[in-house]
Amino acid sequence: MTWEYDAEGRRIVHLAGLHSAPCGGTHVRSLGDLADIVLPTLKVKKGRIGVSYSAVHRDLP
Fold first, then answer.
1. For residues 20-54, b (16+ Cβ closer than 10 Å) or e, as one string?
2. Which residue in 38, 33, 31, 42 sits closest to 53, CA to CA?
3. pLDDT tens string 9-37
4. Are 5 and 12 within 8 A, CB to CB?
5. pTM to 2 decimals?
6. I need a surface site. Which of 17, 29, 32, 46 has the fewest CB within 10 A?
C-alpha cells in the first residue's frame, strides 16, 4: 500500500496496483495495532470497490 496527496490536498491510497481511493480516515501505525478485524461486506459494482469493516484497537503494553 502506498499513498499520496492529490492536487486538492486529499490523501489517495493505492492498494498494490489493484485500486486507488480517497483515504477512509481510520489511521493506525500498523495493522498489528488492531484486533478483531471484520470485513462483512466487500462489493465490486461498476468498477468500484465498496468495503465495510469494523476493528478494535489492540491493548498495547
1. eeeeeeeeeeeeeeeeeeeeeeeeeeeeeeeeeee
2. 38
3. 888 888 877 788 887 766 777 888 888 88
4. yes
5. 0.43
6. 46
Q: What residues form DSSP beta bridges with 17?
A: none
Q: How far is CA 15 from the centre of its chain?
A: 9
Backbone angles phi, psi at 31, to 5 degrees: -65, -20
Residue 55, Cβ neighbours under 10 Å: how many? Answer: 15
Q: Kindly report the CA angle at 47 between 17 and 7, in degrees rounded to 5? A: 60
Amino acid symbol at 29 = R
